[in-house]
Design a protein that fits this description.
Blueprint: E1 5-11, E2 15-22, E3 27-31, H1 42-48, E4 53-57, E5 66-67, H2 75-88, E6 95-100, H3 102-113, E7 118-124, H4 133-153, H5 155-163, H6 176-187, H7 191-201, E8 220-225, H8 229-241, E9 245-250, H9 257-260, H10 262-272, E10 278-294, E11 297-311, E12 314-320, H11 331-337, H12 358-376, H13 380-387, E13 396-398, E14 401-403, H14 408-420, E15 425-429, H15 435-448, E16 453-457, H16 464-474, E17 479-483, H17 489-496, E18 503-505, H18 512-515, E19 527-530, H19 532-535, H20 538-550, E20 554-557, H21 564-576, E21 600-602, E22 605-607
Parallel strand pairs: 3-4, 3-6, 6-7, 7-8, 8-9, 14-15, 15-16, 16-17, 17-18, 18-19, 19-20
Antiparallel strand pairs: 1-2, 2-4, 2-5, 10-11, 11-12, 13-22, 21-22
Helix pairs in contact: 1-10, 2-3, 4-5, 4-7, 12-13, 13-21, 14-15, 15-16
């Protein structure tokens, strides 16, 4: 068998990371536990390296990996070092990630915070940290005592005490020769480095992940020894919290299941590691019937990129659809990264996707979720509802119509057409025209639809002063809501105190972290608009919706004039989340040509087919 190549990487911050690297194909990364090193994962690396690339880093503080700075030894810093390692080694697709004990806590942190970089996650005898301040304080004190013992008594006495831990008692069955090997390996570490690791990366020092795991979409396998009672309980709790997790119990072993029965653990890994799928990235160019005028600009032709994942004759579709004038990303940026995404059938996101390319992330996420739903033979809305623990999804979703005519008579005509299609919630684009003209347009809409719900959408086109003036005059027309009257979450919250019309945030939030800033303004802001494209995908949209509802905010799901693919993703999100009220899902009618047959809208409601996945039939990019 080919010996691994040993890389000695010089990372940011004067960190030296020693990494073993062998094989070719999709990347499997193995993370050892405290006092271990890369050699302690050899029983997994050797049998799995035949058909994939196996990367085994020596985590900082172990096996010659070190830094001049103590702060580099925390779990958070280790995660950053691993991400940098993947970039240095040119790992261009999502990884299968395996972590044992301390390495498992690192692996879980990476998966929770960077799900786009992890295809599958396997944890062996690992936890999400400690839940309470008291538990963490007790553990920090215990780890400090261990660290002090190394400094005062030396490494040899510490290793003997460490190996006498009841957690490792079942390893005595392996015999004295194996135990001597384990002791020699541990003695090969540097005592001062282990002290730094104990103090910075111990279970008590790490940021607990009990809430973060609830939103972690990575398919996870929790491997636990049948005789490791403590961690069996921990695995059960994690399984109950994570969206996609299962437990694999290895009978007859304790905490270090891979050490005591490597054959059984390798079998588990082989059955669960991600499978490669085909990837296709194609352009779509769709003219609009009539140019759409907003405060962000005028759109005549919609250009997007479709992303397809295929396996065994089944294809899932996603879309990257940044909109000029609205999105900080560009289509060119999305096109630059999407061809490099080669994920597995599981929800796996290409590592180059980031806050700079959220629509590209939405494309990859959407295709993976659509593929998984099709493989399971269920609609995407059912798959999302199950994955994110929602109630039974809705069978149909109400839509609002969008009016952008520039003259009152055109507004009346568009409103009348919408009412004829059973749409009872009308949204007028405003802030493109002078206030006098906008007021006349709103008055015309109300006169043409006295019983309709009327919303406004300014796309951030007003200043604070103009928003106050406009909304004060428009309030007499019984306006239900105004989306994005000015730009900025704080600015919209401040404006809410001066006007009577409820306000919603839309373009001022971008990505999941940015969206979370709205929750603190729930008393002033009435609603948040969630666009799967803008937030980074269906998975992030489902998480954001749940958080918004807990904060007491209404949620409106909309598209960015997406094709039938993106519009269907948004509709399935709204249905999976059980969102009543009207949503911005009627945009397909704006397109003179589309890439597939859009979901049908009957009597003002999106109707879902019985097809698995998106339910839009064949996709034919134009």
């Amino acid at each position: 068998m080919t010996a691994p190549v040993v890389h000695e990487l010089d990372l940011i911050g004067d960190v030296t990371l020693r990494v073993e690297d062998r094989g070719q194909g999709s990347a499997l990364v193995l993370l050892h536990g405290f006092t271990g090193d890369s050699s302690t994962m050899e029983m997994l690396a050797a049998p799995l390296a035949g058909d994939r690339r196996v990367i085994v880093p020596n985590l900082i503080g172990h096996g010659g990996s070190s830094s001049a700075y103590a702060e580099d030894y925390s779990v958070d810093e280790i995660v950053g070092q691993l991400l940098e390692m993947l970039d240095e080694l040119d790992v261009a697709a999502g990884i299968d990630l395996v972590g044992y004990s301390m390495g498992g806590r690192v692996a879980l942190t990476l998966a929770c915070r960077h799900a786009e970089r992890v295809r599958t996650l396997t944890l062996i005898g690992a936890s999400a940290g400690l839940a309470t301040d008291a538990e963490r304080a007790d553990r920090v004190a215990a780890d400090e005592a261990l660290a002090a013992s190394i400094e005062t008594d030396g490494l040899e006495q510490f290793v003997d005490r460490w190996m006498a831990n009841p957690l490792f008692a079942t390893q005595s069955r392996l015999g004295s020769d194996r135990l001597a090997e384990f002791r020699a390996q541990r003695m090969g570490n540097d005592g001062g480095e282990l002290v730094r690791s104990l103090r910075a990366a111990g279970t008590g020092s790490m940021t607990p992940l009990h809430e973060a795991v609830r939103g972690c979409p990575v398919p996870t396998t929790l491997v636990v020894g049948g005789e490791d009672e403590k961690f069996r309980g921990i695995a059960e709790a994690l399984k109950g919290s994570m969206p996609d997790a299962e437990i694999a119990v290895i009978d007859g072993v304790g905490h270090a299941a891979h050490v005591e029965d490597a054959v059984a653990v390798v079998e588990v890994l082989r059955s669960r590691l991600g499978r490669a799928v085909g990837v296709e990235v194609v352009d779509a160019r769709m003219p609009l019937h009539t140019p759409m005028m907003t405060a962000g600009g005028t759109t005549k032709v919609r250009q997007t990129v479709l992303y397809a994942l295929s396996e065994a004759g089944i294809t899932g579709w996603g879309e990257a659809a940044p909109l000029p004038g609205w999105s900080p990303e560009t289509l060119a940026a999305c096109c630059a990264v999407l061809p490099r995404a080669v994920p597995a059938a599981e929800l796996d996101l290409e590592p180059v996707l980031s806050e700079r390319t959220l629509p590209a992330r939405a494309a990859v996420t959407g295709a993976a979720l659509d593929l998984r739903a099709r493989q399971a033979g269920v609609s995407l809305r059912h798959h999302l509802a199950t994955t994110y623990r929602r109630a039974e999804p809705l069978d149909d979703v109400e839509v609002n119509g969008v009016v952008s005519a520039d003259a009152p008579e055109g507004v009346v005509a568009e409103v009348d057409a919408m009412l004829g299609r059973g749409i009872s919630t009308v949204k007028l684009k405003v802030a493109v025209w002078p206030i006098e003209e906008d007021v006349a347009r709103v008055a015309a809409a109300r006169a043409g639809a006295p019983d309709a719900t009327i919303r406004l959408d300014a796309n951030g086109g007003w200043t604070h002063e103009r928003a106050v003036a406009a909304l004060t005059r428009m309030a007499e027309y019984d306006i239900a809501l105004c989306e994005e009257p000015v730009r900025g979450v704080d600015e919209i919250a401040a404006l809410a105190a001066e006007v009577d019309i409820p306000l919603a945030v839309d373009e001022s939030v971008h990505g999941l972290p940015d969206t979370r800033r709205v929750w603190g303004h729930a008393g002033a802001i009435a609603a948040v608009v969630i666009k799967p494209q803008a937030i980074g995908g269906d998975d992030f949209a489902m998480i954001a919706i749940a958080e918004a509802q807990r904060a007491g905010l209404d949620v409106i799901v909309t598209t960015m004039i997406d094709s039938a693919v993106g519009a269907a993703h948004a509709a399935h999100v709204a249905a999976a989340a059980g969102l009543h009220g009207a949503h911005g899902l009627d945009t397909s009618r704006l397109l003179a040509a589309d890439v597939a047959t859009p979901l049908s809208i009957v009597d003002g409601r999106v109707r879902f087919s019985d097809e698995a996945g998106l339910g839009i039939g064949a996709v034919s990019p134009r």
